[in-house]
């Protein structure tokens, strides 16, 4: 029988020393029970819930800031491209934790590195050196250059997240502008439908009223343009702009790719006015397109001065990186920026392991092949349901399915049937599965999705008939 955590345990009546012993015993028992349940599940045996998730969720709500809207389920373990909730229901994951778990859940290589490093050294702060921050930086620079991307990549700043990586990029670009001799060179340009984070600097670069309005005014000096509007670049990026930040493929905005023509023109204009070009590859980079970086396919005339990455870099362990050219690095001096946790030996050793695997030729080739499977099957669905699907976008395993209706019910029905899928932009399904997903799992998930789309299309036809009557 699976271990059950009682919500009625009289923990409050225990002395503090006993509470610690109770917690240790409970954790050991729960771990053993979870392992037993896992073994039983793989043998096809039925398992009972570890605890009543709905009850726990309701009780915990009073202790948590209400920043998220979540379904009433709780995941307690994963393996590869699958997740299991506390009722032991199995889900195929087309979300990868929002493009984070590229090597899948509970990857043995990742968990092994975590366990080994945790027993050696987790944190020492950046007052001292550790063996892995520099090794990760070297690996990122050497591999990026060898891939044909960001040919002038020179130095790396390691931090804890995508928002932090973008904050560093914004600060670095501002520093370059401040040393240009033009005291007014402090402005930034970003683009509509982009997403760069929720800290005040990165939020100011994210022109979405839903995110910005509750916290206005934003950091002054940000202005916004339209992606792929080449004609507007010269006026938008003027002499007072110190930095331009753009996603080569917009993720949150709906899987919209910047064109080569646009990015080449943007880089040229940045060079003309002395602005720093920043590529946010936090979601679209690190193998997700089937190239090491989304901009790897572009000529050097479109390469950035700064590039940011995070998400997949740690496969779930918080870590981010801001990669810069020498012309940026030479403007940054000791004390200009810093982080307490960023670059800690645990996160950087894990990131070194993850980056080594995600950058392999075999991995990238497989992502392209799997992306083709997705695209071919989704195009068939588009032809089959033209009133529901209007466009398929993306590269590799970052894919957008543009719908003609609000996708909320489709996401819910997919989840009920055991498929996790995301939305993005306006009426777009976002597919960003683990890069290690198998062909069989792709087909399994697409079968579920097609069944749900068929149901939605039928409902749409019935609604039209009802209106006609």
UniProtKB/TrEMBL annotation:
GO terms for biological process: L-arginine biosynthetic process. Its EC number is 2.6.1.11. Keywords: Amino-acid biosynthesis, Aminotransferase, Pyridoxal phosphate, Transferase. CDD domains: OAT_like (cd00610). It is found in: Mitochondrion. GO terms for molecular function: identical protein binding; N2-acetyl-L-ornithine:2-oxoglutarate 5-aminotransferase activity; pyridoxal phosphate binding. GO terms for cellular component: mitochondrial matrix. Pathway: Amino-acid biosynthesis; L-arginine biosynthesis; N(2)-acetyl-L-ornithine from L-glutamate: step 4/4. It comes from the Eukaryota. It is an enzyme of class 2 (transferase). InterPro entries: AcOrn/SuccOrn_fam, Aminotrans_3, Aminotrans_3_PPA_site, Class-III_PLP-dep_AT, PyrdxlP-dep_Trfase, PyrdxlP-dep_Trfase_major, PyrdxlP-dep_Trfase_small. Its cofactor is pyridoxal 5'-phosphate. PANTHER family: ACETYLORNITHINE AMINOTRANSFERASE, MITOCHONDRIAL (PTHR11986:SF79), AMINOTRANSFERASE CLASS III (PTHR11986). NCBIfam families: argD, PRK01278.1. Belongs to the class-III pyridoxal-phosphate-dependent aminotransferase family. This is acetylornithine transaminase. It comes from Dactylellina haptotyla (strain CBS 200.50).
